[in-house]
Amino acid sequence: MIIQENIPISSLTTMRIGGNARYVAEVENLQDLKEAYEFARNPKMRPEGAGTKGPLPTWIMGGGANTIGRDEGFPGLIILNRIKGIEILSQTADEVVIRAMGGEVWDDLVAFTTERGYSGIETLSAIPGTVGAAPVQNIGAYGQDISHVIESVDAYDAQTGELVVIGKEDMNMSYRSTIFNTGKDAGRYFITAVTIVLENESSMQPPFYNSLQQYLNEHNITDYSPTSIRNAVIAIRKEKLPDPKIEPSAGSFFKNIYLNYKEAESAESKGIKVYTKSDEQKMINSGYLIEQAGLKGKTLHGFHISDKAALILINKSANSYADLVAARQEIIDTVYTKFGFKLEQEPVEIVAATNTALEK
């Protein structure tokens, strides 16, 4: 394992902003992982004159697609998950159990499953990031999310130094929130592998999520196999969403707004478009509010609000986190003034709080 010093966070994240990380380690196996955390715990493992006497804060990162760096950088150790491997654990006539290592590219896992005719994550195609990051944020798109298929994760517990298995029932999964990114245990677990259960054949039937159904109708597609749905989703995302390798962005920048029945009634009475997620839960698309507020296509402080999908902020000329703060606040204030709803940022920010899990 090689540990690098003073690496720009802007080079590790798809938004391309952020100061230097004091240390960065790429881990390719469990031994690397244990050594990385020991490096963070034990000052004697660091170069002389490094100026860090106590335990270092740590930050876990996959592909950096949903992560924002700040101008002050990060004074600790960023650990990049590069642990690879996909295996089929078991299979019956109805379902298949697959274990994928956390450093695998998420879309490579989707390709692996759809090529074999397995169904359950095909609409999650082309989502950037790694397998290990997927359950952290409970990724979802076009009517599917990982909480529907996940069985468990293997993880390194930074608090105890042990390898653990965490079942779905203990992950507290809700919209873009789990124990891995919310609450007292946020950042405690480094996910080394994810186990999912998929169906052997697709059970997806119309009507689909609005934009997916529209695409299928427009192209006269009646093949609903996992590969066909995957190809449709990739085409939709390619049309609407920028390639972060070409145009720096962090994907959907604001979370959608979830409402109860009474809140939804109030919003609809004001002419706001509300979607039904379940009998008890309604949703407002935040991109719709941004567009209706007249911000779509505008450039604020170096960040361009995508002409195709208003939830996407593209870094056109910004060089600092301060630019992002200014653009974000202008969008939030404009939407709140017009509609009375306060937008919430989706990407997480690398912060330098002390990792108490290492203080032992």
Explain the overall architecture.
It is a single chain. The protein is α+β, with helices and mostly antiparallel strands and 360 residues long. The chain is built from 8 helices and 20 strands. The protein has helices at residues 30-41, 106-115, 134-137, 210-218, 226-240, 261-269, 286-292, 321-339; strands spanning 3-8, 20-27, 58-61, 67-68, 74-81, 86-91, 95-101, 140-141, 144-145, 150-157, 162-167, 189-199, 249-252, 257-259, 275-276, 282-284, 299-300, 303-305, 312-315, 348-349. The strands form 6 sheets. It has a 5-stranded antiparallel β-sheet with strand order 6-7-12-10-11. A 4-stranded mixed β-sheet has the order 1-2-5-3, with helices on one face. A hairpin with a 4-residue loop joins strand 10 (150-157) and strand 11. The radius of gyration is 21 Å and the shape is globular. The two termini are 24 Å apart.
Topology (elements, then pairings):
Blueprint: E1 3-8, E2 20-27, H1 30-41, E3 58-61, E4 67-68, E5 74-81, E6 86-91, E7 95-101, H2 106-115, H3 134-137, E8 140-141, E9 144-145, E10 150-157, E11 162-167, E12 189-199, H4 210-218, H5 226-240, E13 249-252, E14 257-259, H6 261-269, E15 275-276, E16 282-284, H7 286-292, E17 299-300, E18 303-305, E19 312-315, H8 321-339, E20 348-349
Parallel strand pairs: 2-5, 3-5, 4-20
Antiparallel strand pairs: 1-2, 6-7, 7-12, 8-9, 10-11, 10-12, 13-19, 14-16, 15-16, 17-18, 18-19
Number of strands: 20
What's the domain count? Answer: 3
CATH topology of the largest domain: Uridine Diphospho-n-acetylenolpyruvylglucosamine Reductase, domain 3
Please give the order of strands in the largest beta sheet: 6-7-12-10-11
Could you list the spans in which at least 5 consecutive residues all have pLDDT below 50?
Answer: 354-360
Reading off the top of the CATH hierarchy, the class of the largest domain is best stated as Alpha Beta
